[in-house]
Amino acid sequence: MLLVFLVVTAVLIFALLPDAGDGESMSGFQSAAPFDAESHTPSGVGAAPLPTVASSSVEELEAASLALDTDATESSWPEPEGSVVGRLIDGLGRGVEGEPVALLLERDPWLPKRRDGESEVLDSARSATDGSFRLRARPGSALQLLAGGDDWAMRRLESVTEGDDIVVSLTEGLVLEGHVIEQETGAPVAEAFVMTMVDGQAAFARGDANGAFRMGPVPDDEIILAAYAPGHGVYTEGDIVASLGPVTAELPPGRELFGRVFDETTGEPVAGASLRFAVERSVFEMAGGAPAGDGDGAGGDALLSSGGPGWRDYVAEERESTSADDGSFSLGPGPSVGFSLEVEAPGYVPHTIEKYVERNLAADAEIEVPLRPVANWLGQVLDADTGEPVAGVDVTASAADDAGVGSVLVEGMSDDEGRFALSMEAWNGVGAVYLAATEGGDEDADEAALSRHARERVAKDGEETILQLVEPLRTIVRVEADGQPVPGASVAARSERAETTVVVTGDDGTASLVHRLSGPGAKAQRVRVSARHGARTSLTTTLDLIEEPPAEEVLIDFGLALELAGIVADPYGQPISAALVTSNRGPRAYSDEQGRFRVAPVERDQEHQLFVRAEGFKSKRVVTVAGYEELYISLDPIITWEGRVVDAASGLVVNGFSGTLYSVLDAAAGKYKSMRGYRARSVPGVPGAFRVPLPAAGRYMVRFSARDYITADGPILDFNGSLAPPTADVLLSPAAVLVVQVEDGRGLPIEGLRVDAVPVGVDGRPLQGKSALGRRRTDRNGEVRLNLGTGGSFKLRSYGWLDERVVRVTPGPALEWVCRVPTAGDLQVHVTDPQGMPVIDARVRVKSSRKNNDYSISRRVSVRSADGVIVDDLPPGEYTVSVSRRHWTGASKTAFVPQGRTQRVDLVMQPHASNPAPAKKTKGSGANAGGGARKKLQQLGYTGGR
Fold first, then answer.
1. CB burial class (10 A; 0-12, 13-18, 19+) of residue 16?
2. What is the DSSP secondary-structure string of 852-904?
3. Distance between terminal CA atoms of the chain?
């Protein structure tokens, strides 16, 4: 959906979960299968050995069924036998019942890396009465655990592995409310798209007809908020805290999106190119549903139904256009970042511009779209040993599809000189292209009959790709454990630029492996062979085919794979759960409720560096050698300052506060430095209580704020690095609060107006050196709540409309005040060419004249129909009305808007000589035609094309 704001993560498709077996389904989430505590394995899962399978390509592996109820004889992939178990707890250690949990496949080293960044959902469930859960897991894979998202804020744990026993601490979920308005006019923006990002996780909602939105659950933490609506720019704001009350997202005006399509080689314009502009986003949700506010007239929750965990697409905007004879195109107003533009033209390779990874477009920047003419991928097939050309070899060109699996685009054959030319016409221009040559059979031939093979990535356009044929690796793989054969073990062989080959052992624990190499290079002929069976993963055996010939048999012994095991505890010996223990050689695991962890597989007598980190504790690095003793790792806690926030007048605790830690540079001079990332956080279940982590020895201060209170600084904290400063109460004094009701002359509430409170003296004149306070916008009822600190005398100003009355506000109960602004009028603007034909997609600007010194109004709108455009709700007075359009000469007039009436303005534009006719009107398709593959959610925003 929206913009570039921060690099966090990704920014993105659906996976329907299989039936989870026994157990009652809860609100669309799947319950886990019965669990065998002794084997640590769901009962009835894939116990039967699999028959020997010759070799499976990555396409076959991706297509192979991974459902646990699949008959073992029907799949060439071993059934996953492992699981991840754990417990959800609150801040006091009590079990959290009924919250959703889901396990996602983050990465499987045996399968191609997904390009779309959207992890497959392996299993989901809801926590039991005591907060416990059990999820089926794929052994040997890096997993991601998501928990919460129903009543509690969602929590994500990365790098989870099969066998982990994890305690997940959840924080109470809040509802974030707010309004989306236009930055320039303050008018509400109907059905805007809104997204929050916390800890790399995005949540999505849609505002209602009045611009209001409501989404949750979100943590009481720093939130990144983003918003967008068609025809506007994008809005982002960090450090949003839901407990501090409603927020206002001010959408900037959109800029005109225009550009040209041209031939990359000749620079000549390309006419008739089809353009698809899209602002869309794919978000992972623990419960699915349509965006809030669809037809119900109220901003609902972001999670509306129980469709189950999965990726869901939201299309904020979609338009189509066609390039003119000079290659130019116009898409109307839109954002300067956060969109994708897909361009296609006959005879050219499709091209996609994704403005979420590039800089914002300048206000007058042209979008340049170079198209590559469809040509041929050229190359030659050679014998790797002799260097001689090889004729009659099958050659294919493949490109990665949405799942990252190679899909064949075109096939051909080498000629008498070994040369080939493959047309790139079927390529969509996305992803790397690989050329492969196979001698002795096609993809469907018996693996044992396959002869030499080569595979290379296309480097640069116009350069020939040399494919050097080499013999495949042929060997027998034997898999054992404690001297006994392991039937049904999956064996993978991987090498540089080659596709992964997977075979499955038979009853004798052996399998015939034929792995096709990509070429003669040293890296290409270094083959890595490993095996996994159920929850066990072997060490990797590396075969260097250049240093020594292929062995007749490769032995893989599960018994050689050791584990690094131990306990993580605090200095007092109390176990630490959910500590992430990572080896510098790759394996990682989380500690369970007893603090125990198991990192496997590792090799005996090798030195390992373990990196241990846990929430609330300082990270630690441990150096050890595998195979000797159990580890005991003690983590020092992060020292926190604790206390309560209390109302200074009543003595009651204050909730919904925020606090920021500052380093004290010079207390006497009031010099402080904000400590980024260190904030006062509320203690779940303890009203008014807070904790603030202290990073190191030094002097600190915490600044607190809350709605309707005066911001206050806590005491100076002298921290020695080991002992927490004494607990204390921080007193917040009630502020002077003014609740303003803004109406026009007709008594109707005015929504979205920014209201300032201007401090004045006894003579009613603004005080010099005193800036306006409040600066909030009215809600749908025309109300705004202003925190005026210690109070005083004020006049109200809204877009320059000054209420001459003086109001005195003092701390205590809120004072209510009604402010009336002049009854508005309207401007009806018609734009035509010299022949009287309407001009569509012109940009109209209405700005108050300099004669109107008491207010300043500026509006920008686009003409979308032959009837022109109405600019409404303008205070009476004189305005300058101007119009602009690319390739046209602008025009302007002065007009007077009467009170409560509509004034018509006619403007005539002259087209440039090079563009005598109006361009075609853009149109929206209204359907999500976007493909699945886009970058992972690494950046916040409406990312182009999911």
1. exposed
2. -TT---EEEEE--STT-EEEEEEPSEEEEEEEE-TTEE-EEEEEEEPTTSEEE
3. 8
Instruction: Please check the confidence at residue 14 and state whether its pLDDT lies above 60.
Output: no
Phi, psi at 762, each rounded to 5°? -65, -25
Q: 791 has which bridge partners? A: none
Could you give the CA distance from residue 67 to residue 853 in angstroms, rounded to a whole number?
A: 71
Q: Could you give the CA distance from residue 398 to residue 382 in angstroms, rounded to a whole number?
A: 20
Residue type, 851: K
Say which residue the tokens 């009203």 belong to. 687
Burial 532-569 (b: 16+ CB within 10 A, else e): bbbbbbbbbbebebeeeebeeebebbbeebbbbbbbbb
Query: Which phi-psi region, left, alpha or beta, contains residue 851 (left: φ > 0; alpha: ψ -120 to 50)?
Result: alpha
For residue 636, the 8-state DSSP code is P
Burial of 728 (0-12, 13-18, 19+ CB in 10 A): middle
Give the predicted TM-score (pTM) of the model.
0.63
For residue 933, count CB atoms less than 10 angstroms from its CB and return exposed for 0-12, middle for 13-18, buried for 19 or more. Answer: buried
123 close to 19: Cβ distance less than 8 angstroms: no
CA–CA separation, 585 and 567 (whole Å): 20
Q: What is the pLDDT of residues 293-337, one digit of tens each?
A: 333 333 333 332 345 787 877 788 888 899 999 899 988 888 888
pLDDT tens, 616-657?
888 899 888 776 678 899 998 889 999 999 999 999 999 888
Q: Which two tokens stand for residue 51?
A: 């028959």
Residue 249 has a CB neighbour count (10 Å cut-off) of 25
**Cβ atoms of 817 and 763 closer than 8 Å:** no
Q: Find which of 26-35, 157-166, 240-249 is predicted with most confidence, using mean pLDDT.
A: 157-166
Residues near 934 by Cβ (< 8 Å), separated by ≥ 6?
12, 116, 117, 282, 340, 354, 943, 944, 945, 946
Q: What angle do CA 208, 212, 215 make, to 5 degrees?
A: 95
- Helix (H) or strand (E) segment spanning residue 63: helix 58-63
Taking only the tens place, the pLDDT of each residue in 508-524 is 999 999 999 998 988 88
Query: What span, in angstroms and rounded, lies between the C-alpha atoms of 870 and 902?
Result: 9
Cα–Cα distance, 225 to 233 (Å, whole number): 14
